[in-house]
Write a structure and sequence with these properties.
Blueprint lengths: L4 E5 L3 H13 L3 E5 L2 H9 L5 E5 L7 H11 L5 E5 L4 H9 L4 E4 L4 H13 L24 H13 L6 E4 L6 H10 L8 E5 L8 H6 L16 H4 L4 E5 L6 H13 L1 E2 L8 E2 L3 E6 L3 H6 L5 H7 L2 E4 L10 H14 L6 E2 L1 H9 L5 H15 L4 E2 L1 H9 L5 H4 L7 H14 L10 H20 L4 H8 L3 H11 L9
Parallel strand pairs: 1-2, 1-3, 3-4, 4-5, 6-11, 6-12, 7-8, 8-11, 13-14
Antiparallel strand pairs: 9-10
Length: about 475
């Protein structure tokens, strides 16, 4: 039987009774109190081997008590319980030095397991942590069991540099999670740099990530810093990692293995100190089976996997999200709104193909377009009855052509740089980016016949052969 003395503090007598019975049956000595003052007296006297405490108590908040406990007894594990169940609750519990955070209601078997694990660990593991009041501008919203588990995982990761892989459908908030890991983690003083693999031309990705030297390629008129250099000492967020070309995957793997890289056209290895957070809305294991993603890179990135559930799997979070987005809209100058319960229930039954992003757009639309203060179920039915435009469709005009597609791509590409400009040599890089699929399509249409492909393209055969070599296009001949 396990042994140890457990100090329990909770102003709810029912919780104290349940914990007393469960811990006593597990073989522990249990002492119960309903206030923080008694708990502090016991701890300061050296009593107890572990503390289980609620956050909110009549005389003091546990988050105010925790730093004092860790100061006088840094080795004492403290398990924090809370019915508030927000992202910031989990983060503050971690920042104040709690061993574990448990949202109420909790599973007693899980609690007993955590108690046993905490008591079995070496006391030297219970290190001090720096207290930080945190920011009330909560980056993640939701109290569902799925989100609670994500909060707990994030809280454990804040004081580590472990590589994280975030998987989830478009619109679930993958970049918000990456930013939370940075903003509340040990690298918060460093830069947060994001790069979207799907928004960068394939021939530019290596230069974007690792930088290039003057003269490394046509148009490279000066040295340019890559995202690794920009993120030094901070966090590098690799969004849509499944769209990374194979050559860039190989170079990224080398960085993860060796902790250094070379710029495009450079020869001197550069040491790097960044935390990598990757994200994808694709099934990387399927891409591995198709030969489109390196398995060894997947395992290097997938150290801590986090799956963000689609909104349809956590509809109980819809009311909190609605309030959050209405509050945001009001702070931005839009009229204050209220929403009737029937309207909320209607929104909870919706499938949300665009996930949280779709809900946010709907709430902003409701705040901006409707004069009435109360949003009714009728208005919601009216909005949801309108044919929804998917994020992809929203960018596609009725009459599409190559010029429009290129223009949209360039607008998105320049947008990733904000107020700065892309590296020099853009003209030649974009032409090369267009040449690759064009020549590939011509070769595919002519079954690899270079003579016919040259005629189709209207170029000289020698010119086509040179392009095939320069672009490293694989030509496969096949009979009709």
């Amino acid at each position: 039987m396990p042994t140890g003395s457990i100090l329990v503090a909770d102003d709810d007598s029912a919780i104290r009774t349940v914990l007393n019975q469960a811990l006593s049956r597990a073989g522990y000595e249990v002492r119960l109190t309903s206030n923080a003052a008694t708990l502090w007296r016991w701890v300061s006297q050296g009593d107890g081997d572990l503390v289980i405490t609620d956050v909110v108590m009549p005389d003091e908040n546990a988050f105010d008590l925790l730093p004092r406990i860790k100061k006088v007894r840094p080795e004492l594990p403290v398990i924090v319980m809370s019915a508030q169940n927000t992202f910031m609750t989990a983060i503050r519990a971690s920042e104040r030095g709690a061993y574990e955070y448990l949202p109420k209601p909790f599973d007693l078997k899980e609690l007993i397991s955590i108690v046993g694990r905490a008591l079995a660990e070496p006391k030297s593991r219970m290190a001090d942590s720096t207290a930080d009041e945190g920011n009330e501008n909560i980056p993640l919203v939701g109290r569902s069991p799925a989100m609670q588990e994500i909060y707990r995982v994030l809280a454990r990761l804040m004081q580590t540099d472990l590589t994280v892989m975030i998987a989830g459908e478009s619109g679930t908030g993958k970049e918000l999670v990456a930013r939370a890991l940075h903003d509340y983690g040990k690298r918060r003083a460093g830069p947060f740099v994001a790069i979207n693999m799907a928004a960068i031309p394939r021939d530019l990705i290596e230069s974007e990530l690792f930088g290039h030297e003057k003269g490394a390629f046509t148009g490279a008129q000066s040295r340019s810093a890559g995202r690794f250099e920009q993120a030094e000492g901070g966090t590098l967020f690799l969004d849509e990692i499944g769209d990374m070309p194979m050559d860039a995957q190989t170079r990224l793997l080398r960085v993860l293995q060796q902790g250094e890289y070379t710029t495009v056209g450079g020869r001197t290895p550069i040491k790097t100190d960044v935390r990598i957070v990757a994200a994808t809305n694709k099934d990387l294991r399927q891409l591995i089976n198709q030969g489109l993603f390196r398995e060894d890179l997947f395992f290097r990135l997938n150290v801590v996997p986090i799956r963000l559930p689609p909104l349809r799997e956590r509809t109980e979070d819809v009311p909190d999200l609605i309030r959050h987005f209405f509050n945001q809209a009001e702070k931005e100058g839009l009229p204050a709104k209220q929403i009737e319960q029937a309207a909320v229930e209607r929104l909870k039954r919706y499938r949300w193909p665009g996930n949280v992003r779709e809900l946010e757009n709907l709430v902003r639309r409701l705040a901006a377009l409707y004069p009435q203060e109360m949003i009714t179920a009728g208005l919601i039915d009216q909005e949801l009855a309108t044919p929804a435009v998917s994020p992809g469709d929203a960018e596609t005009p009725a009459e599409d052509n190559l010029s429009n597609s290129v223009e949209r791509f360039l607008n998105k590409y320049f947008g990733t740089y904000g107020d700065t400009l892309p590296p020099p040599g853009l003209y030649h890089r974009i032409l090369k980016e267009v040449e690759y699929p064009l020549i590939g399509a011509a070769l595919a249409a002519t079954r690899g016949n270079q003579i016919k492909a040259a005629e189709l393209l209207g170029v000289n055969r020698n010119t086509l052969r040179k392009k095939i070599r320069d672009l490293d296009i694989q030509v496969i001949r096949s009979s009709r």
